[in-house]
Amino acid sequence: MLKVAVIGVGAMGGNHARVFSEIPEARLVAVSDSSERTVQTIANRWSVPGYTDFREMLAKEKPDAVSIAVPTALHEDIALIALEEKVHVLIEKPIASTLEAGRRIIAAADSAHRKLMVGHIVRFNPAIQLLKQKLDEGQLGRIFQIVCRRIGPFPDRIQDVGVIVDLAPHDIDIMRYITGHNPMRVYAEIEHRLRTDHEDLLLGVLRFPDNIAGSLEINWLTPTKVRDIFVLGEFGMFRVDDLTQDLYFYENAQVDKVMWTALQTLKGVREGSMTRYSFLRYEPLKAELQAFVKCIREDVRVPVTGEDSLMALNVSLALIESGQANQVIEIK
Prior knowledge:
The protein is α/β, with parallel strands linked by helices.
């Protein structure tokens, strides 16, 4: 079995420890956290050693792989030390707080010949996986627009980044995953309403190749969580509820898939039948960590690379720049 450890066992990292203890191909050997109380709680729960110094944990327990679930500003330092110890690394998104730090992590993983995967968990939602399958099969035809809404209350655990770097990478990554493209340019309106050092509201527009438009509505100001993704195309619209793992298809009854394009344009859009798909639900985090373990054991490419996460961070930072400068930003 693969020996795994978790660095940072707060809200998300505690779940990493739980899931690793459930995966047959992996063995949770230790956990680490800067909080003595937190680390002992999780260590006692899963009957493993707990450390407040992750370096000591790496030296004594010698894990094959680690999950890093610490504040974003600490990602680089911890990842580089783990990679120096020849440990495979999974980092919770975003990969780092800056592009330069992300590039250094990627370079270190390449140099150490170790796997680097970033935890863009939304990709592993079974509804998203089925949506991707339906799109690849051509059920929607050409994609016109993707709309993502990720709104909810302010999380007290987040102190080092704003809502864009914390949440937008989820939806940027999904847009890239669905379309197979990087956005070409972005424009954003951002607001700072709470007593924090960072923005807490984003309305963003993204332009992709193939005339695909994307929009983001993200905030920490809404008293209830909403996690919706809409994909509009020539044959109708898909909707994913990321919280309930539901996938719906709303048919454009006016379109006959055998019609030529000009006639389709003339006929327009009319409400058709609605389909709610039935499929097996499962925990996305467990699917993500199982994929990480499998990639290490079988020495295959990870499904979410450092480069994937670096692009999501790149676009997120461009949205911040756009909001601050009140102008369109081209994506390099």
